[in-house]
Amino acid sequence: MKKIVIYTLVISILAGSTACKKSLLDLKSQSGYDYSTYFASDAAMNQAVIATYAVLLHNGLCQDYFTFDLLGDEAKRTTNMQGDNQQLGDYTFGSNVSSIATLWNSLYRMAFRANVVIDRATAWNPSATADKQHAKQYIAEARFLRSYAYFRIVNCWGAAPLITSYDSVLKNKYFPRSPTSAIWSFIESDLSAAIPDLPLSYDTATNLGRATRGAAVALLGKTYLYEKKWAQAQATFEQLLQAPYTYDLDPSFDHVFSTTNQLSVENIFQVMNGTWTDWSIGNQYYVFGGQETWGGKATHSDRAQEYGFKDWFNCYVTTGAVNAFHYPNPVGGAPYIDPRAYSTFYGDKPSGGDTVYCEHCSTGKISYPFNASDPQGDYSWRKYEYYDLVPSYGGPQSPINMQLIRFADVLLMLVEAHIQQGDIGSVPLGLINRVRQRAGAVSYLSLGADQTAAMAILMRERRLELCGEQSRYFDLIRWGIAKQTINAERAIEPGQGNQPFQDKNVLFPIPDVEKNYNPNVAKDVTNGWN
Known about the structure:
Blueprint: H1 35-38, H2 42-53, H3 64-71, E1 75-77, H4 85-90, H5 98-124, H6 129-157, E2 160-161, H7 166-171, E3 177-178, H8 180-194, H9 213-226, H10 230-239, E4 267-271, H11 291-295, H12 303-307, E5 315-317, H13 319-324, E6 326-327, E7 336-337, H14 340-344, E8 345-346, E9 356-357, E10 366-367, E11 380-381, E12 402-406, H15 407-420, H16 426-438, H17 451-465, H18 472-479, H19 482-490, H20 512-517, H21 519-522
């Protein structure tokens, strides 16, 4: 697969005292680079942009599927799971849990690198027309990535430090928390500024994965939706359904999560993962030591290995998630099993899950070893796995790109924007059926008698379509139903801890690493949490 190769780039801040008289030892090397001279070419600026994308593979982000699948009660830990992910699965985590601290650090690293790109690209001032256009594009890409980082930050922690320029870091190391309204406003402004300078697409396969104009429009629409600005969300999402955009649903639901998904017409923004072949390209286990310290040019995902029932098998699919695929038939008659169950998990025939694997192995297909007596349930992840090709992986090496924004999600968010404005008519009905029909599910005849009924259908549709894509936790939080929903499901879930979802869990705790470093943040945390 031709993809972006994430090259390592160390961005240094060279700030020193000039109070002492210069000596011969202080003379600057004429062949050396520093912050003011390195970013003086298109190649150097492009490296800085790629280094900002590279944070998507850093600890905290590259494995955030664990964090949000567990918290959203779509995944549950097996006895194989180690480390503080057990605490996430049991809702016993606190401000010292490492996965939350590394997520915080990586998101701020992304924002910092984006600030560097914007600062240097603004100062670059090239003479060539192509370079001038690239400078605008690089700034727009950085704005998109910075917006993505702050979107994640404000949804996880609420009020948080808002660092909007490189120069501000030189003047202030201890930023106070900004209110959520300021962060949301900044995201809207950044994305609005980025959109006109981003390309609709890129001309070579080596640029796959870079932010497009459509990705920025989609994230802006999602921002409005999360802010409950329904009309603005609707108008923004509707742009993606017409020219010049050409997004569509992939004819194959399975293909969206396959080893060849990099060219799916449904993609809007992905984390690009490359096949790991051997140790010459980098450490196969870089997720444990960090991509930029261990990884080299390795960009594979370890999700298939972590979730795979024939490999590390750290997670089951929850009973609640499996049960969600069983619901009253939209056109009447016998209870319905949604066909997306087959693409989401392995199980027994009554569950609707896939019952065989290795369909394309040289040995021929093999029956899934469902164990009905397993006290934790025995439904294993199929989405983002590729057991149709091999009987086991033998180590992290998955090339499957992770979907961050895809067209089906946009269609369902557009449906929600309609419903929240009181429209439960033919337009949102047609959109939700468009998503269902792609997967082979029967169409709804209506969205129900009122807004409440329509929202219940939309909520279930998002759960089924996006199961295992780290969306449900945030959906439940923003809908204000996380506590009652998750606690009700955990009450029937075998093999899980007993700690309930508490009111404080609508936000993450501010990490100890930040409180210990930043006194202006620490003094604002009065309850030991947020």
